[in-house]
Design a protein that fits this description.
It comes from Paenibacillus larvae subsp. larvae. By secondary structure, the chain is an all-alpha fold. It has seven helices and no strands. The chain has a domain of 62 residues.
Length: 152
């Protein structure tokens, strides 16, 4: 069962190693190879081998390293690494609505919630300040001594 798959794998490798420069000749060679496989076995070739053959047919497009091939070609497409590089350079549409031309984030500001430890710290310092304030208030509001301005 695996003998014909291994033989087809070797045939695909040999075809790729021939490095045919004309695309139409490459397409004819790939069609002849796959048709011979289907006629002899009765099934379509393995998907991995078909992918190798498709990459061989599209060798010029997949090896084009030019970063701006989208504007140069009528029907451009990316190889997997070119597509990944393009995705890494793109920004999401989520930031478009909130980030201005100046690069600043213009969203409505929201305060973060304090952690419990921060709340406890604020409460302790507030209690200390309240104790000091209460003591000062008591001293300032305490009735003073009574002074008499006339003598009897």
């Amino acid at each position: 069962m695996n003998d014909y798959k291994a033989a087809f794998n070797e045939a695909v490798t040999d075809l790729i190693n021939h490095k045919i420069t004309d695309r139409s000749e490459r397409i004819k060679a790939v069609e002849a190879l796959t048709d011979a496989y289907i006629d002899s076995i009765g099934q379509t070739p393995d998907s991995a081998q078909l992918e190798r053959l498709a990459d061989y047919i599209l060798a010029e497009e997949l090896t084009d390293m030019h970063p701006d091939k989208m504007t140069r070609e009528e029907y451009p497409f990316f190889s997997s690494w070119q597509f990944q590089r393009r995705q890494n350079k793109e920004s999401s549409f989520g930031n478009v609505a909130t980030v201005g031309v100046d690069g600043k984030d213009h969203r409505k500001m929201t305060r973060r919630k304090r952690r419990r430890a921060e709340d406890n710290y604020v409460d302790r310092s507030a209690k200390i300040r309240n104790k000091e304030r209460r003591e000062r208030y008591r001293i300032e509001r305490k009735p003073g001594e009574v002074r008499t301005y006339y003598q009897q």
